[in-house]
Structure formats: C-alpha cells, structure tokens
Design brief:
Layout lengths: L2 H14 L1 H5 L1 H11 L14 H4 L5 H14 L8 H6 L4 H8 L4 H4 L1 E7 L2 E7 L5
Antiparallel strand pairs: 1-2
Helix pairs in contact: 1-3, 1-5
Length: 127
C-alpha cells in the first residue's frame, strides 16, 4: 500500500475512533478491518500468508500515527497516561483540550525536563 493511501486511511481511522488515538493495536485492527481483512465469528482478524504481503506493515502504521500526532499535532491521544508516555508537551495538550476541560484537569502532570511531562497522577478513575 502506498504511503499516501496509508496516511489517508490512518487519518480516517483516527478521526472516527478515539480509542485508536490511544492504542496502536486498535488502530491496526481498524485499518485491517477497513481493508476488508476477514473476521472470525469471534471478531478476530483472519490473515492468510498470501494476504499478509498485501497489508501495510504494522510498524509503518505506528510511524505514520506518530507523525500525525507528534509532529502535526492532530488527533492526539485523549488519555493522560498515553499523553505522558508518548511525551506530548504541555502546550500541545492545552491547545487541544484547554486548561479548563475535564480531560486536562483529570490529571496533574509532573514536570521532568523542559516542557515535557512524563508522569501523570490520576485524580479520578477516567482512563
């Protein structure tokens, strides 16, 4: 799959699935589903060896997601622990959620280096 097409598919999934913004496995699953990879009755992907070569590499998906979120600042994660784990800056988080929003105020961020926050302290049970 060409990079431009994969990029467009990732943007499509990230724009429609909040969970995919927070978890690469969900992102990869949704992309495979959109590419018509068959599902078993229990909802598991069924990928034959012949079809495996037609699918985009999972690492390419992760790297393009990272570019979209980290460099472009689009469709950033919505969970504080994921924001911290991926090293998002305080300014980017504020610009997306706003300081007064519940999503931002559910976490206190511990500043470690520069303007990056590495460790959230959860104030409530929101993921």
């Amino acid at each position: 799959m060409k990079t431009e097409l994969l990029y467009a598919e990732i943007v499509n999934v990230l724009s429609s699935s909040v969970e995919a913004r927070n978890d690469d496995k969900v992102l990869i699953f949704n992309i495979c589903k959109n590419l018509k990879v068959p599902l078993s009755p229990s909802g598991e992907l069924i990928i034959s060896l012949e079809r495996l070569g037609d699918l985009p590499s999972f690492e390419s998906i992760r790297r393009l997601r990272q570019k979209i979120q980290n460099e472009e600042g689009r469709f950033i994660p919505t969970y504080g622990n994921v924001l911290c784990k991926r090293g998002f800056t305080q300014d980017l988080v504020r610009s997306v959620f706003g300081e007064s929003s519940n999503e931002y105020q559910n976490y206190i961020f511990i500043k470690t280096e520069g303007s990056r926050f590495k460790q959230p302290i959860v104030l409530n049970s929101t993921p």
